[in-house]
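Exercise 7.
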Amino acid sequence: MNPGISSPASKRGVRFLLQTLIAGCSLLLAAVAHAGPFVLAYTDGQVEASYSNLQAFHRNLSAVGLGSVYGLTVTGQLHQEGMNPTSANIIRFAQSKSLPLYPTVSDYNQGIADFDPAISHSIVNDKTLSAGSIKQLVTLAKEGGFAGINLDFEQVEPRNAKAFSAYVKALGNALHASGKKLIISVPPKSSDREPEYLQGYDYKALGAAVDYFQVMTYDQVGPGWSSGGFHDEVWPGPGSGADWQQALLGYAVSRVAPSKVLAGLPAYGQDYSIGNRVHWSAYQEVITEHRAVIHRDAASATPYATWGPVRTFADGVEWTPERAQPVLWYDDAASIQSKTALVAKLGLGGTSVWAMGYENAEFWTALQAGLKAGGELLPAGRE
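Solution. The predicted structure, written as tokens, is:
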């Protein structure tokens, strides 16, 4: 056959090949478009509403973080002290919907009712404890039918930075070898050196070892503290301001591939009259009860409600009943949209929420609107 002349059969073959390629490209583009930002919502196994809200709002999620169930001890033993009927129901439901489920494994110590630096210190500096705990975590992911592990060590001391990075790398390698993924939750940092007490977290090394890098951009200000460099370092103030988030996430993406980074959103605020958290679903009740006046802080794009004159206190001044202030700092639909818009603005992998059971349908509507609108909803005059 003359190679310069095409037969009808060969033309049909070329057309078929082109049609196949076009169809394949269309499917690929559709899949990419459908994927969108990664939305990780944590459940709180100690809150019954966490299960009912998962049932109601699971279609908004890419994956579920199973919070308040698993942890490691100072001797490297995996425990499930938080397992209860609510947690078991969350696991069954998520798996029934084929939602990727990541058990959060923390360094929380029930004995001291706080995250314990002794746990990470002992595990990452002892080869036997390190290897043993990694083996247990891989087994948990495999035998539990989980998508992977979400490591949540919140009190890693600066002296353990290298050892912790090596531990996370080894854990990531072990999980990946078993077809599982690793998410790490980290406290928010503003630079390589600040704040000093968070220098146990080498963002660059940790980010290279994991699949998703969840930055806990919440608790900026609370009863007794105010994160450095923002809001004049006084409390009361925003729990997670847009300006604060943008600065901290901007640092994160300078050290970690942006596509891995997940911003953190709280579904709770702070009532400074009682010195404690209030869930999103209860905000209106507090505002109505006190006949509060609603304001909005421009820099943080965050609302607050007052029912009397408010005094401020410096970071580190402890909240006491004598220092109670008539103000609720919280989020509303507009502020959630502004903060979620940072995902598109910074090219992040997605967002994360702590925690299901605290929120309602309005929260998810606002979050989805922010993801779609992207940078258009940032506060005026801010990049």
